[in-house]
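thread: overnight batch results

M.L. [08:02]
morning all. the overnight job finished for the chain we discussed friday. pasting input first so we're all looking at the same thing
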Amino acid sequence: MSTTATKTSDDSAKLLAKSVLDSTRARAKKAHASLGVIRLDYDYPPAPGDIDSQDSFGYDVFYRAVPGLSFEMCQKGVLTDKVKAEFIEAVVWLDKEKNVSAITGDCGFMMWFQELARQYTHKPVCMSSLVQLPSVAAAYSKHEDIAIFTANSVSLKPMNSLIEDQCGVNPEDTRFHIVGCQDVPGFEAVAVGGKVDVKYVTPGIVALAKAELAKNPTIRAFLLECTELPPYSDAIRQATGLPVFDAITCCNMFIEGLVDNPRFGISDWHAEWDGVQEAYSLGQHLDEDDKKALQSISK
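M.L. [08:03]
and the structure it wrote out:
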């Protein structure tokens, strides 16, 4: 066989091998990481930045409502047997049916059910943005403080022992400043399930952050506990120059732990996100009986 023929044969073999390898890699690509959100039985118009707004995320997010799971029930941290069964079903559905990469909730008070959710999945569970608190606290000295913004400071207090148990951080430590947003003009809409006028509320949230910083100049970071507070994170960052952590940064942390870093290491090992979210309305993915059991949708 001539040298030219041999080279042609070798080139063809290499091309075939590359084609087979590329095909194998394509088939072996992992799905892009996605987020599962357990939703209250609570229908409201979320603003971008809110955890219930798909516009808040740069990856797929899937929702599953729990019939009968009210804000008041989460606040008390006690589920009825029926709601508990629905909650567990939601966790399993997000894990097994949607194969999400991490699971969170759309109410910070779902921290009460962090341990319950963990019993039914091996995926990361972050039912509250407060799971970031140990890392944020460890980044600063014991003499530097963190402001924790919540929808209602009085309502958060009964969770102190739970937060210490689940996060290993005592929120009653003097370095943590719990700040309620219940008196910010316009933010009362959160408590009644109404549409929040973010543009109107933003100056009040910023003023509250600046006042807290003026009162406690050793504050080095803000952590927003309420899932309806992230729309104000950028404004606080701009006004104070300090880092702000919230429900979105919490979810992003777990998702980013599962996606390719394009700057180094191997590449092209998981599918790219197509940029299209699955359309969702409260009650979607529930069977007819569960849809009828939803209390926040007119029958």
